[in-house]
Every structure is written in C-alpha cells, then in structure tokens.
UniProtKB/TrEMBL annotation:
Residue ranges constituting the Dyp-type peroxidase N-terminal domain according to the UniProt record: 14-142
Residue ranges of the region described as Disordered: 309-361
Listed Pfam families: Dyp_perox_C, Dyp_perox_N
Biased composition (Acidic residues): 329-342
GO molecular function per UniProt: heme binding; metal ion binding; peroxidase activity
GO CC list: cytosol
Entry's family note: Belongs to the DyP-type peroxidase family.
Keyword Iron: yes
Name of the protein in its database record: Dyp-type peroxidase
Length: 361
C-alpha cells in the first residue's frame, strides 16, 4: 500500500530518543507568580544554550528535554493546549501510594559527562533566577551495565528505532496542533536496600520477573503475577502490547542513606504509563500490587508535555495574545511544507520512516 504524499510539515523532535548516557540531571521547578515572562523569554533560547555548552565536547552528546506541566501551560502560552495534558493523579493502593507533587517545568539533561549536564543546568537556572523555585533536583549516574541500585539491568525491553518513535511521539492524527510531542511522567523512588539485600536472589528475580545476572525474562509460567514486568506489560483492546520509552537513572546520597531510581517514561499518550502505574499501585487484578514497591517508595510524581523542538524554538505568545500569533504560525508552517529537513530527529538512528509520516497518510 502506498501512502499519499503528505503536505503537512513534519516537526523537529526533542531529544527523547538520544542514546543512553552516563550522566543525567533531572530538574523540576515551579514558576513563581509573576515569573511567567522570564520563563517565556528562556524557552526559545534553550536550544542555543545546549549548543553553546555541548559544542565544547560534541562527542559527549549533551541534550536537554524540556517538559511543561498542565497548570504552567495555561500560564505561559495562549492558543491550543496539548489534548491529553493534565496533572498527574495521586494513586493510593491498599499498601502503597504514588504521590502527585508540584512541577511546572521539567528539564531532563543528559550527557556522557556530569560536568556538561551541570554546566547547562547552571545556565538554565541563571536565566530563571527569581522566577522559579526548584522542587527537586536529582543527579543520576550510570551504574555498571545499566543496572539500577537493586542490581537489575533497567531498560532492556525499551523499544528502539521506529517502534520507539511510535511509542514516544504524538501524531498529527491524534493531536493536529501538537504532532511530534511526548508525554513524560517522572517519579523519584527511594529503595530500602537493607530489606532488598536480605532477600535471596531468587526472590529478587521473582519480584522483577527477570534473572539478575543474565537479565533474561522469566517465562509466563514462572513469572509471578505481582512481578514488576508482569504488571507493566499492558495491551490495547486488540491485544497489542503498548510501550513507553524509559530513561531511568540511579542516584544516591550516602549521608542521607538515600538509594534511588529516578523513573522517567515518555509516551505518545499519558494513558499507557498511567495504566502501568494503576497496575503497580492499585494492582491488577485489584490488590495484587507490584512486589518492587515493597522495597521502593515513590516520593515525587508529576506529568509534563514535551512539545516539539519547533514549538520551543518559536513558542506562541502569552495567554490573551493568541489570535495574531496563531495566524503568523500557520503562515510560517505553510512555507516549510516542502522542506525535507523539517523531519529531524537525529537521535533515533532510524530511516525517517516512522509513525509521524505514516500517521499523515
Ligand atoms: C521493566 C526497574 C518503575 C515500567 C523494568 C525492568 C527493571 C525495572 C529492572 C526489567 C528490565 C527492562 O526491561 O527494563 C524499575 C525500577 C523502578 C521502575 C527499579 C522504580 C522503582 C517503573 C514504573 C513504570 C515502569 C513506574 C511505569 C509506570 C516498566 C516497563 C518495563 C519495565 C514498561 C518493561 C516491561 C516489559 O515489557 O518487559 N523496570 N522500574 N517501571 N518497567 Fe520498570
């Protein structure tokens, strides 16, 4: 079957599918009352700051993904809003709770070196000085062969290439104004290492649903229904597995006895990640919660929309100034329709034949 050629401009994507890195900074801030103008001033400059810091060490792959929370969106931008953007709901299961905590902006900064991440974060915060309050700051590190602090390889079943594209990015069909965006949910987990380490390895493997050393998934017969992998495997109504792109990182602070996993999951729709959270915390069937949660406490939780890079580079005006900005935006978009370079995701290693094109057929 051939697809009709698309006249729609294809958005440039944020670096969601950039390769795994050795370091990351996760920065969650809220915008202080009156700080909106300063945030709006920064937004189109973020990609320039990434270039300025990253160009000094191009081989170390500095990237920054910017996410915007539901309340902040309405304070910052006029015009349409992403169809599925909403605050993360708290989940209270019989045994464990996933809190919803404040967050207006998320900066997910990654590189092979922490100094690059830190330098970029410093520049971002200098531009936001007096306009935002930092709610959470986590410096994540790669731990041996991409293991979490529980000792298991984390990220194995992540989709790659075109399936990763399809999993992570919104399509023009789903949301015409926000194609090429992504919904991201973050949660900071703290592990009870003493209790976890007291478990025999076989019991740890049953909690995860994979072997520890060799990272092989258990068969469906072996895998307990309360294992992490069983509860995070979700399907749509047709039985097709729904995927998200996870870029979790370990972190820790010895003096405070903190050993953690920073969970970060990108998806074309927040509903897939939310279903996984429901399964983990409320249980599936209800009451059968994720065994990992008996050793891992979620202390933060928030949801953001990650718009396309085009949106960030040329954001709409503030609320109330929408009509003129929208007309100008449409005219500009029409002018770009034939530009082959307008399909740009240098990070996924695929051949540019992913879901965005198909969805416009
Ligand atoms: C798989 C760790 C939280 C979604 C895994 C695996 C590990 C792991 C070790 C198996 C290897 C892999 O495929 O990556 C953790 C830890 C967490 C955490 C330590 C926090 C304490 C979450 C949350 C979600 C999630 C909050 C979603 C809301 C998934 C998914 C898979 C997975 C979708 C792959 C399942 C499959 O298709 O096999 N996780 N995870 N994880 N996790 Fe998590």
């Amino acid at each position: 079957m051939t697809s009709a050629p698309s006249a729609e401009p294809q958005p440039v994507l944020q670096a969601v599918l950039a390769p795994l890195t050795k370091a990351a900074v996760f920065l969650v801030v809220t915008v202080d009352p009156g700080g909106e103008e300063q945030v709006r001033d920064l937004v189109p400059d973020i990609s320039g700051l990434v270039r300025s810091v990253g160009f000094r060490a191009p081989e170390d792959g500095l990237t920054c993904i910017t996410g915007i929370g539901s309340d902040a969106w309405d304070r910052l931008f006029g015009g349409p809003r992403p169809a599925e953007l909403h605050p993360l709901a708290e989940r209270t299961g019989a045994a464990h709770r996933a809190p919803s905590t404040p967050g207006d902006l998320l900066f997910h900064i990654r590189a092979q070196r922490m100094d690059l991440c830190f330098e970029l974060a410093t520049h971002l915060m200098a531009r936001l000085k007096g306009a935002v309050t930092v709610r959470d700051e986590v410096h994540g590190f790669k731990y041996f062969d991409d293991r979490d602090l529980l000792g298991f390889v984390d990220g194995t079943e992540n989709p790659v290439g075109s399936p990763a594209h399809r999993a992570a990015f919104t399509t023009a069909q789903a949301d015409p104004d926000f194609a090429g965006g992504s919904y991201v949910i973050v949660q900071k987990y703290l592990h009870d290492m003493e209790a976890w380490n007291a478990l025999p390895v076989e019991a740890q493997e049953r909690a995860v649903g994979r072997t520890k050393l060799s990272d092989i998934e258990m068969s469906d017969e072996e895998k307990p229904p309360n294992s992490h992998v069983a509860l995070t495997t979700v399907e749509d109504a047709d039985g097709v597995q729904q995927q998200i792109v996870r870029l979790n990182m370990p972190f820790g602070t010895l003096g405070r006895g903190e050993f953690g996993t920073y969970f970060i999951g990108y998806c074309a729709t927040p509903s897939v990640t939310e279903e996984m959270l429901d399964n983990m915390f409320l249980g599936s069937p209800p009451g059968v919660h994720d065994r990992l949660l008996d050793f891992s406490t979620a202390v933060t939780g928030s949801l953001y929309f990650v718009p396309s890079q085009d949106f960030l580079d040329d954001p709409p005006g503030p609320p109330g100034e929408t009509a003129a900005a929208e007309t100008a935006g449409e005219a500009e978009a029409d002018g770009e329709a034939d530009d082959p370079d307008s399909v740009t995701d240098p990070f996924d290693g695929s051949l540019r034949i992913g879901s965005l094109k198909r969805s416009n057929a």
